[in-house]
């Protein structure tokens, strides 16, 4: 197992997506609050490790279930190309899962100063659920990603949990309006998963069920359009309700990227769709960054 193989399977190009929610939550919390930069750093490290854990577990699960075959439309990773064995991948997953627990526990301690109170215990339980969700998208005997439930879990953990969790842990206060930007990032995150599933519809159909497969190509594209539109509407409602100046609408600068993404989704198929994934990931990150600023 080489470092190059490990990094390849970690799929670093997906990391801006996981950081988008945390970035937005922290920046919104910074509005009128002093931040603990240790807590912010541990938030980012925990989030990155959870994303990597999800990517590694996804590769292993797809390999064990026979989904990653030679006819797969997406990028090939380390196990599929023989650069890493299944036992080596299991060890790597164990190490990253341990890092998730260490960073997550440190994050909760940094925010609350204890683990033994209702709120810290609730966040530790949420962290444990996030680790489980990251690993069981395709791993296990009955992975939820093979039953078309991936969209729900991605919306919860990459949208609601990251933005709301990042916000609350940064300032230890709650504002119900935060659910609007959290749901916005959740919609874009589900969009990333949906594009991936549209691209892989033909090869996935033999081993798993996804929302894209259930909908069919045309309706999956409509679903993608609705996800992007919903994300924009939710953030715009939040910006209007909280606006203090035109700077609250800086995120509009990313509109062209989202339009280019949707154009690609409607005009490309199979492997030609692959560039639409990083385009949406990067667009979501800068959308979150500018909305938070």
Q: Which blocks of ≥5 consecutive residues have pLDDT under 50?
A: none
- Helical segment tally? 12
Number of strands: 0
Report Rg: 19 Å
Structural class: mainly alpha
Question: SSE order in H/E notation?
Answer: HHHHHHHHHHHH
Helix content: 55-70%
- Residue fraction in strands: under 5%
Mean pLDDT: 90
How would you sum up the global shape?
globular
- What is the makeup of the main sheet? none
Report the span from N to C terminus: 41 Å
Tally of discrete structural domains:
1
Task: Explain what this protein looks like in three dimensions.
With 293 residues, the chain is mainly alpha-helical. It has one domain (3-292). The protein is 70% helix and 0% strand. It has 12 helices and no strands. Helix 3 runs antiparallel to helix 6 (150-171). The model has no long low-confidence stretch (mean pLDDT 90).
């Amino acid at each position: 197992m080489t470092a190059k193989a490990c990094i390849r399977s970690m799929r670093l190009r997906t990391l801006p997506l996981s950081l988008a929610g945390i970035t937005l939550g922290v920046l919104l919390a910074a509005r009128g609050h002093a931040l603990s930069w240790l807590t912010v750093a541990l938030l980012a490290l925990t989030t990155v490790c959870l994303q990597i854990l999800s990517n590694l577990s996804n590769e292993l699960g797809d390999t064990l279930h026979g989904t990653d075959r030679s006819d797969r439309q997406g990028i090939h990773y380390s196990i599929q190309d023989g650069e890493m064995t299944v036992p080596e991948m299991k060890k790597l997953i164990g190490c990253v899962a341990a890092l998730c627990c260490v960073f997550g526990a440190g994050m909760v301690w940094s925010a609350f100063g204890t683990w033994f109170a209702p709120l810290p215990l609730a966040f530790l339980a949420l962290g444990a659920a996030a680790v489980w969700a990251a690993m069981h998208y395709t791993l296990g005997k009955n992975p939820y990603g093979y039953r078309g439930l991936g969209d729900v879990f991605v919306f919860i953990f990459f949208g609601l949990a990251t933005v709301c969790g990042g916000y609350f842990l940064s300032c230890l206060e709650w504002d119900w309006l935060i659910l609007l930007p959290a749901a916005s990032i959740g919609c874009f995150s589900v969009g990333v998963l949906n594009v991936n599933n549209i691209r892989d519809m033909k090869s996935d159909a033999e081993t798993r069920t996804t929302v894209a497969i259930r909908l069919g190509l045309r309706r999956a594209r409509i679903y993608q359009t609705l996800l992007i539109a919903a994300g924009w509407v939710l953030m715009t409602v939040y910006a209007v309700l909280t606006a203090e100046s035109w700077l609250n609408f800086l995120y509009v600068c990313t509109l062209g990227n989202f339009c280019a993404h949707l154009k690609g989704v409607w005009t490309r198929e199979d492997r030609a769709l692959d560039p639409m994934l990083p385009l949406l990931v990067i667009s979501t990150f800068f959308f979150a960054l500018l909305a938070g600023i």
